[in-house]
Amino acid sequence: MNVMTVVERDVSETRSKMDARGVQVWYGDKHALKDVDVAILDRTVTAFIGPSGCGKSTFLRCLNRMNDTVASARVMGKMTMDGQDIYDPRVDPVQLRAKVGMVFQKPNPFPKSIYDNVAYGPKIHGLARTKAELDEIVETALKKAALWNEVKDRLAAPGTGLSGGQQQRLCIARAIATSPEVLLMDEPCSALDPIATAQVEELIDELRAHFTVVIVTHSMQQAARVSQRTAFFHLGNLVEYGETGQIFTNPRDPRTEAYITGRIG
Amino acid sequence: MTQPHIISSFDRDLEAVQALLMRMGGLVESAILDAAEALEMRDEGLALKVRDGDKAIDALEQQIHSECARLLALRAPTASDLRIVLTVMRVAAALERCGDYAKNLAKRSLILAHMSPLGGTTGSVCRMAKTAVLRLKDSLDAFIGRDKVLAADIRDRDRDIDQMYNSLFRELLTHMLEDPRAISPAMHLHFIAKNIERVGDHATSVAEQVIFLVTGEVPEEERPKADATATTSRSTEE
Ligand SMILES: Nc1ncnc2c1ncn2[C@@H]1O[C@H](COP(=O)(O)OP(=O)(O)O)[C@@H](O)[C@H]1O
Ligand SMILES: [Mg+2]
């Protein structure tokens, strides 16, 4: 009978973009991630929450093989994108990271112009043949990152001269300039004030029209606000994974309930 | 309050629960009017339609309730946003009760359809129903328009329904005193009238919710009351 659903929270997307099966991570003999199974849905914002040190960032870094760069890290299990094994020896991790972009906690623009920050990726990946094409890529990325109107008159100004919130949106523009399919964000708002945070959250909601977004956040309210799916990690285990509304109104696991109601830290 | 949120999906969520509430209000208004018409026209088909239609109203209330729970859990609304969610939940509960009264009216009309009419009493019931629905409609309009002046006006208009109820009550008493066979239909009509009067009370409480929504404060002073039936039996004996 429900003729009208609350559209915003309607999670109609069911196609899996990335799949993890039995993923384990060790740092030396520290078992940081234990047997994680997850299906990250296409064009959906998935939030990872859990107490500090539970393995959220570790798992996020598995998704674009950033752990390859950590000498002590050993990753086991199967990880696929569109059904393709991303740990296959034939996969070039640099190419993979163009498809699975990443945005970090602290905005880290290059000490270059706003334009060059965004143009950098497309240039090294050879995505533009002419200056006009590059201009267009830069403009589109800045528009998608909801920054264009604020910077279009000063593209030659240094990226580091922007406010914190603008810098983070510049980093998002930089990440999407290489036309990724997945965007990973590790606590992208923790260095931002509440207004800049709300602007980035609004941007994340818009980005899911084009990308699969995975966000690690220490703020449960942020996960509740921006995501359609939430995964709760605890002591290296994926305790519960489900539709965000369900996780926050009726979690199935007592550990999830304890965490989201502020009973364990 | 009219300024949009930076996170626009928050606005869309808030609008969606209010749209559901308005939908529910529309269903309840027509249920009451249809039930009253079924009573007056002895239209059993229409009565059955109202009786079965209550399920849809209940389902909407359930949906509003769970959407509001999500909103509270996911958005942590504050200030006027919080009052919107609280008001929507309370108004939905009031509308659900009104839907039940419409269903009850429909069921009683099916029984009354097989009894002889008691003068012009069904006509009076219908007028009462129309007045109650009008107040309900006005209170929902006040909600959507955030109109505290209209809300205060609805609150003060409580008298008319109470007076209609009182005069109907006396009329029914007269029928019962004249002819014991009138007792059964008169009792049914009395319950119907009492329920319509309650719809009026719910409209008043919706109006009070609107005042709370707009001002942040629950109106305090006593409303005028004109239900005198607790003492009417004596006056009819005189
Ligand atoms: N490079 C590393 N070397 C050794 N241990 C690490 C490294 N990175 C993370 N760890 C450990 O792995 C566990 C999970 O860390 P992390 O994934 O960063 O957690 P979270 O992001 O949930 O706070 C922690 O105990 C942390 O100390
Ligand atoms: Mg981390």
From TrEMBL, chain A:
PROSITE patterns: ABC_TRANSPORTER_1 (PS00211), ABC_TRANSPORTER_2 (PS50893). The keyword Transport applies. Coiled coil: none annotated. It holds the Pfam family ABC_tran. One of its GO terms (molecular function) is ATP binding. InterPro entries: AAA+_ATPase, ABC_transporter-like_ATP-bd, ABC_transporter-like_CS, P-loop_NTPase, PstB-like. Residues 6-260 form the ABC transporter domain. Keywords: ATP-binding, Nucleotide-binding, Phosphate transport, Transport. It comes from the Bacteria. This is Phosphate ABC transporter ATP-binding protein PstB. The lineage of its organism: Bacteria, Pseudomonadati, Pseudomonadota, Alphaproteobacteria, Rhodobacterales. The gene is pstB.
UniProtKB/TrEMBL annotation, chain B:
The keyword Transcription regulation does not apply. InterPro entries: PhoU (IPR028366), PhoU-like_sf (IPR038078), PhoU_dom (IPR026022). The keyword Protein transport does not apply. Residues 229-238 have a biased composition (Polar residues). It is found in: Cytoplasm. Keywords: Cytoplasm, Phosphate transport, Transport. Pfam families: PhoU (PF01895). Residues 21-108, 126-210 form the PhoU domain. Homodimer. Plays a role in the regulation of phosphate uptake. This is Phosphate-specific transport system accessory protein PhoU. It comes from Paragemmobacter amnigenus.
